[in-house]
Amino acid sequence: MVVNVASECGFTPQYQQLQELYETFGDRLAIVGFPSNDFGGQEPGTHAEIKAFCTRHYGVSFPLTEKIHIKAPDTHPVYAWLTAKKANGVMDCEVQWNFWKFLLDENGRLVNCLPSNTSPFDESVLNWISSGE
């Protein structure tokens, strides 16, 4: 699962759910958080500040990248691939806010994208983990 994250967002408590998901299904689930300040300026910190916040408040142990851009013109290559069907071969998906989730299979193929308000424990996520896709 790839998710764009932010420390000052209404969805920030999802860090705790993401961590629980990571601990529960870590043998068959990888989560990578991509901090971004592109949506509402809700991730203003440095990498060290972001990591400290996530560890202190939510016990986050899944990987967090350096802060990236998701919006054009400086879209990070991972998000350029995730959001464009011409690149990923599956679907177009516009990231509209923080905590947008992308589900990939074990071979790195895009399976689905889920909006911010989708809980990490949503049935669609749990079914995806159970199916192994």
Written description of the protein model:
- This protein has 133 residues and is of the alpha+beta class.
- The protein has one domain (2-131): Glutaredoxin, CATH 3.40.30.
- Helices cover 33% and strands 13% of the residues.
- It contains five helices and four strands, in the order βαβαααββα.
- Strands 2-1-3-4 form a four-stranded mixed beta sheet, with no helix packed on it.
- β1 (2-5), α1 and β2 (32-35) form a beta-alpha-beta unit.
- 27% of the residues are buried.
Tell me the Rg in angstroms: 14 Å
CATH homologous superfamily heading:
Glutaredoxin
What is the second-level CATH architecture? 3-Layer(aba) Sandwich
Total helices: the number is 5
**Residue runs with pLDDT of under 50 for 5 or more positions:** none
Structural class category: alpha+beta
Order of helices and strands, N to C?
EHEHHHEEH
Give the overall silhouette: globular
- For the record, the CATH class is Alpha Beta
How is the biggest beta sheet arranged?
4 strands, mixed
Number of strands: 4
Termini, distance in Å? 11 Å
Helix content: 25-40%
Strand content: 5-15%
**What is the CATH topology classification name?**
Glutaredoxin
